[in-house]
Amino acid sequence: MVEGHSVHRVAASHTKRLVGKKFKASSPNGRFTDGATAINNQVFQRIEAVGKNLFAFFGPIKGPLFVVHVHFGMSGQWSVFDSNSEDVPEPTPTTRLRLEHPETGLVSHLSAMTVQLGDEALYTEKRAVLGQDPLRADADADLLFEKVSNSKKTIGQLLMDQSVFAGPGNIYRAEILFKAGVHPNVKGIDLGRARFDRVWLHTVELLRRGFACGSILTVDPDEAKALGNPRLRRYIYNSAHCARCGGRVVSWDVSARTCYACTRCQPLNDADAISQPKASPAKVFVSHCAREPLADRILQGPSKLVVKELRAELERRGLETKGTKAVLVKRLATAMDIDEPEDEQEPTHLPASPPLEMALSAEAAAAEKALAGENRAVEHIAELHPSQAAKAAALARTGKRTRGGGGKKVAGQVEEVEAASEAEEVHTAGRVVKLEAKVEPESDVGLGLGGRQRKVRRTPQTAQLKHTAQTKAGSEQTEAGSEPVADSASAVE
After folding, report:
1. What share of the chain is helix, strand, coil (3-state, %, to 5)?
2. In degrees, to the nearest 5, what angle opens at C-alpha 272 toward C-alphas 270 and 278?
3. Residue 334: pLDDT band with limits 50, 70, 90
4. For labelling, which of 45, 159, 297, 418 has a CA lying 20 to 30 Å from the CA of 474?
5. 53 with 128: CB under 8 angstroms?
6. Is the separation of the CB atoms in 405 and 363 below 8 Å?
7. End-to-end distance of the chain based on CA atoms, in angstroms?
């Protein structure tokens, strides 16, 4: 799914490169022929993002405008090519719109689930039913709180409702509520202003971070280092244990989507007990939109390994390698002797670190994903054509520089950008919350909430398991993301 931060990146990119020009418009697959005819040789006046929706305005400066409404769906993209310096691929069967500007050599391909032509009334109508977008200057937190506080739906449901919060998806829901310390099953009417403010604060913070770096990165870099895993990208999404406190993560279905919560960091108090979910230990899986290195997955249990990896580990141990995945998982789980984290005291609040400011170009963002082992199939860069993303990933792996990446090399990792100040103010639609920087010293043990030390007992078998996994991780990361993504848009949340 193309999330709100990626949609805003497309709008920002096209404002710089496309707005103000007249284009020759056509519809290669014939599914937007009338629309292409209407905007042909019309001035591209402006483009707006609202949540997961884009609105492109074409026409004269004075007079009625045509509006093209775009919803990318799962894997749409609106790419731009400079024919003077790069090859322009042929349109695919899903290319709804092609824009060509002969004077500059710019060519643009749009592939999306929804590409709809209308007038300015279409924009007004669509905008009226969308909720508050944390990346827009006109977001109204007070209006949003009024809507949330009058709802009997849970905050977990409301965060995924685009008529309430416009932009976040399932990964964001898990991580926003975790950082806010709010259980997903607290009802809107029971949330209260203090907890709502924390939810909105982290919604703004995390989507801004996504906009800056082009990926859903929810773990503050300083905390990731303090926890002993600088590569850590998310706290609880698709995890069996909380990355911060080591506690158990539970999951359950909400409107056909998996919802996550840490039992320690997101407790339900007595007043919220009526909303207690029927939760079970989180069922982790091999995620294609939040890919993790083998060395990290194998320590979380066999369920996060694919069949090929399961058989390789079983063979290394001299065990039977035949059977279905469920059989292989059970066999390896029986063979693995990994101690659970020790019981800890109740956590206290840890002040958040300043939001990450890492302004990466689309190419640099695609390179960072490839180097981190994340698959481009879902959480991808919507400003890039699959061929452009594949090229950026290949350049990253060979240590070459990416265009627009600020002169940084992206071989092995994307360089961290130092925080501009010791504290940063995050503006949440009229409310200003100051986040004080707090960097804990690095140590050989993880830090739990409130700076507590967290020790994880490791057996000799675990140490050998991690050593073997780490030797394989490099080859896996090289392979991950190397296949071109199909140029398609087929489903929507």
Report:
1. 35, 15, 50
2. 105
3. confident
4. 418
5. no
6. yes
7. 8
Report which of 172, 143, 160, 180 is spatially closest to residue 433, judged by C-alpha positions.
180
Judge whether 366 and 393 are in contact, CB under 8 Å: yes
CA-closest candidate to residue 5, choices 51, 71, 48: 51
B/e letters for 36-60, b = 16+ CB within 10 Å, e = fewer, are bebbeebbbeebbbbbbbbbbbbbe
d(CA 304, CA 404): 35
Smallest Cα–Cα separation from 490: which of 405, 377, 322, 372? 377
pTM score: 0.69
Which is it for strands 257-262 and 249-254: parallel, antiparallel or unpaired? antiparallel
Alpha carbon separation from 483 to 113, 377, 390 (Å, rounded): 22, 9, 8
Give dist(CA 240, CA 304) in Å, integer. Answer: 10
pLDDT bracket for residue 97 (50, 70, 90): very high
Which of 29-38, 102-111, 405-414 is predicted with the least confidence, judged by mean pLDDT?
A: 405-414
Cite the DSSP H helix spans in 163-298: 170-180, 188-213, 221-226, 294-297
Nearest Cα residue to 297 out of 478, 470, 481, 482 = 470
Q: Are 91 and 32 in contact (CB under 8 A)?
A: no
Check residue 172 and report its DSSP letter. H
Helix (H, G, I), strand (E, B) or coil at 58: strand
DSSP annotation of 319 reads -
| DSSP β-ladder status, 280-281 and 53-58 | unpaired
Output the CA angle 392-385-23, nearest 5 degrees.
125
Distance CA 288, CA 305 (A): 12
In residues, how long is the chain? 493
Residue-wise DSSP of 87-130: PPPPPPTT--EEEEETTTTEEEEEE-SEEEEE-HHHHHHHHHHS
Q: If you average pLDDT over residues 89-117, what whole number do you get?
A: 96
* pLDDT at position 336 over 60: yes
